[in-house]
Amino acid sequence: MITSEEIKRRLWDGANELRGSMDASRYKDYMLGLMFYKFLSDKTLETFKVTSGLENMTQAELVEEYSKAHVEFGEQLDKMIQNVLGYYVAPEYLYQTWIKDINSGDFEVQKVTDSLNNFERTIAGYDDASDFKGLFSSSTLDLTDTALGGNLNERSKNIKALILLFADLNMIALQKGDVLGDAYEYLIGQFAMESGKKAGEFYTPRQVSEVMAQIIAKKTDIKSIYDPTVGSGSLLLTVKKHLSDEVQKDLAYYGQEKNTATYNLTRMNLLLHGVRPEKMVINNGDTLSRDWPEDPERPNEGVQFDAVVMNPPYSVKNWNAAGLKVSDPRFEVAGALPPDSKGDFAFLLHGLFHLGQNGTMAIVLPHGVLFRGGAEGEIRERLLEKNYIDTIIGLPSHLFTNTGIPVAILILKKNRETGEPVLVIDASHGFTKVGKQHVLFEKDIAKIVDTFVERREETGYSRLVKREEILRNQYNMNISRYVEAIDEEIPQDVDAHLYGGIPQQNIDDLKVLQSTVPDVLNESLKEVRKGYVELVKPVEEISTLVFNDPRVLEKSKELEDEITTYIHKQFDTIRNVESISTLPQLMENMLDEIKVILSAFDNIDVYDGYQIIAEIWKQSLSHDTEIIALSDFYTAGCTREPNMVTRGTGKKTRVEQDGWIGSIVSNTLIEKQLYSDELEEIETKKSRIQEIETELADLVEAAKVEDSEEANALGDTLNEAGEAFVSKALKAELKQVVKDSVEYKHLKNVEQLLSEKSALNKKVTADEDALKKSVQERILTLKDDEIDNLMYEKWFGNTVNALVRLIELPLQNELNTLQMLHNRYADTLSAIDKESRNLESAFEALMSELVVES
């Protein structure tokens, strides 16, 4: 059983190994194009198998039967498959035929070129196959490109290696549950990260797509969706993922892309994700220079969509090469033409023009659109006057691989109620730094989406801004004008520095302690003068009182009970997963439910808890539930697979098997739970080895001390570096010294220590090998209750404690603040002055005692 994560890892490792020095943005066209051709070949064979009633055949046998049938029925068979799929791949041009030629030594690069050209010819004249036309054009897949190899032999070798990368993947089986689509999308994302600045041409980072998609998907009656700068189609597909199966079934996808290679990539991506050809209309064209799609019956309205999503190129210069006027129906609503030096509003107005009256639009743009003046200021004013701008979401900088600038997501609607405020969200501080990039975690995305849905106001994060305030700011929508960032730095108090004491206001600001254990806090303080207090107990003692307080313990126990019930319920649900297609909904339900549970408890950061569950999915559940869905929980629990490891370096790198690992059950957990005695024995031996090493290290140091007993006895037995004893030298010295002498005892002691260490090391190695083999065999005979215990520990072993800890965290943070305040004002200025004067007096006294001798 191969999971999507394993496919992703294998394909990306293969890509890195095979592409050599070729630019990632170019290599992706070859890799993803050939991967898609394998999909087309597999679909052709699958259709032939089903329509011919052939079952239980190997792929080689199926290819042979298809070849025979093609000889016998020819064009009739071609048309039959074409009617089902909209295309067909002839037997001599199948991907499987390439593999056969490679294995027999008859492969030629020209055969691949011929196959791709033949595919183009087979669909010519078929309207239903328009979505496949031009997919393998020479501008996309030029197999004569010297970047693939300096000569024909090198190109042939590299293309063969790439073909073999997909040889054993059953694209039909992988398409079920979107495993194939996920792997394809993953590769696009990885190539984007490797491509740097060029990535912006074809990819929207997953985290940004997720924010936009989840917001769009909150509208349940979506029948059509449009992306005018569609890139690789990732935005459309992310929205698709968050819609119900019923909505997906009838959803129509529209997109336009200027770059031909990327346009081809879009179509491949959508088809691999199971989007039916008749449900997708993707156009290769310039969105701004010529409006698309148009409605012939209503040329001034354009085609309207329920949802519009966009990540256009930022601040495009000379966007109006076509000489468009403000009379263009797309720009009429704004009353002004966007400046030629910046095309941001041109893209926005195009998308808005195609937005249905009850639709929702989400677009990513640089922050400049919120405050720049001139024509852009006029356009912004008109959009606000018409009440089209619904929400502005400020995102962190460095989210994109191709630019470090911060961006904003604008949500637009045409049916907003009169006087409805604009929601402004400042999410620019909610990120985690990973390398040079800033990353939105699942908790950050969830908080943005929840704030949008609930129209929630939160100090320092979000505000509902009324029209009157926007007018006062002259339609400047710069986020900092409406959402003031919280300064978490506690101001310095001059009086406290001069005279001591902690300002009472700072104590009043400890809201969690004040609301949870006010008496414990107040009894730990005494007033030193009006408005100032000091601690009568150390913070460590106060902490003990706080965390052992019955109110805190009761609250922790209540949450513990809730979480335990929640986990037992989820565990039962996960064990009974039957379909990969249900996994996204299962994860969403699990994440939503933890938010509901945690929301009932005051002072808990709900989104920290959300992230804990999201991490469990990321680290293990996504992988394990996929395997469970493909078989069943207990079968998967006692299934093992080869543990493949990479050994060697450079040209000697090789992948080989190193024993077995459980498909879902962790070998390490089996050791801990079922072989604890054996583990303990091994640990005891290792501890003794460490003790011996410490004794030997001490003796080595003693042997370096001149004229010591150890030096006289052991000095000549050290190696040249003087870091260890040499066994051969020890034996030689033992033969020369008198038995039972001091020297003999020292030498014999070291010899025995070395001998014991050697024996223990051999025993540990043997014990670990035996334990490893026992564990690998035990996987196959695990009982149901053992699998239950092992998997519960793997998934949720520390989850209760981690979530209950959320009650303690805000209390601990405020106790840390209390300690900081105490330290800050512990030494007053007068005390420091006094100490300084004392030091000066002591120094002067010392100077007077000094006698200068002539």
UniProtKB/TrEMBL annotation:
N6 adenine-specific DNA methyltransferase N-terminal domain segment(s): 7-164
GO biological process assignments: DNA restriction-modification system; methylation
Keywords for this protein: Coiled coil, Methyltransferase, Restriction system, S-adenosyl-L-methionine, Transferase
Enzyme Commission identifier(s): 2.1.1.72
Single GO term (MF): DNA binding
Domain DNA methylase adenine-specific, residue spans: 176-488
Family matches, as Pfam families: HsdM_N, N6_Mtase
Coiled-coil regions listed in the entry: 672-709
Source organism superkingdom: Bacteria
Isomerase recorded as keyword: no
Gene3D superfamilies, alphabetized: 1.20.1260.30, Vaccinia Virus protein VP39
Matches recorded under InterPro entries: D12N6_MeTrfase_N, DNA_Adenine_Mtase, DNA_methylase_A-5, DNA_methylase_N6_adenine_CS, Restrct_endonuc_T1M, SAM-dependent_MTases_sf, T1MK-like_N_sf
Class of enzymatic activity (EC top level): transferase
Catalytic activity: a 2'-deoxyadenosine in DNA + S-adenosyl-L-methionine = an N(6)-methyl-2'-deoxyadenosine in DNA + S-adenosyl-L-homocysteine + H(+)
Family named by the database record: Belongs to the N(4)/N(6)-methyltransferase family.
Protein name as annotated: site-specific DNA-methyltransferase (adenine-specific)
Organism: Exiguobacterium chiriqhucha RW-2
